[in-house]
Amino acid sequence: xxxxxxxxxxxxxxxxxxxxxxxxxxxxxxxxxxxxxxxxxxxxxxxxxxxxxxxxxxxxxxxxxxxxxxxxxxxxxxxxxxxxxxxxxxxxxxxxxxxxxxxxxxxxxxxxxxxxxxxxxxxxxxxxxxxxxxxxxxxxxxxxxxxxxxxxxxxxxxxxxxxxxxxxxxxxxxxxxxxxxxxxxxxxxxxxxxxxxxxxxxxxxxxxxxxxxxxxxxxxxxxxxxxxxxxxxxxxxxxxxxxxxxxxxxxxxxxxxxxxxxxxxxxxxxxxxx
Length: 274
Hints:
Elements: H1 4-16, H2 21-35, H3 37-58, H4 62-80, H5 83-104, H6 106-123, H7 131-165, H8 169-175, H9 181-196, H10 198-201, H11 210-226, H12 231-243, H13 245-262, H14 264-273
Helix pairs in contact: 1-2, 1-3, 2-3, 2-4, 2-7, 3-4, 4-5, 4-7, 5-7, 6-7, 11-13, 12-13
């Protein structure tokens, strides 16, 4: 943050190194959050050079989409200060990104689908999955992963901004995350539609859980901080999310819905006072 040149150099070098693309994306988002869209756009354009070259040779557009998506989410957060709108944007851009990935990386998607079908057949020879079904399922995984990747890089950038210029600011934002009842209701309706028309848009069903789980994580962080528990509880929470995914993930989504409609924080504070 010492100068625009330092930001450009850091971002371009990170984008040119294997497995360091997240750092360049976070740097672009940080510049946008701190100095505005104009300054962030300049760093973004320079960063797109190595990212575009990698896309040309590898054929994977996901790093470029993550970079552009995170930048747009950072611009939206700077203008509105609304994480709810950011979560909506993450879902929309990830859904659009899955379609772009299908169009621009069809060969790559097909290779992954073949590998996935072969893996399933090794696990259970009686399981029959077509390449089309596997491709659709992988697109859903791609959209879900893209949404969380963009949110994670935006969170890193916002946390950096808080540490440098507003200590404690990001923690207050994250701990206060809560979806409006109207948005929660819309998400439930859309999930029902995805389930009803699973053959067409069913692969987007997991993507719709992203705003729910993200806000639930904010609630859990708030609860751990409110009870003044150690950081081991945070580590245990994420460990359970990884190793008990099928149980913890639906629980978090349900918790976010309950918080949206019943405001768990206020009820907890009322109980504490009594």
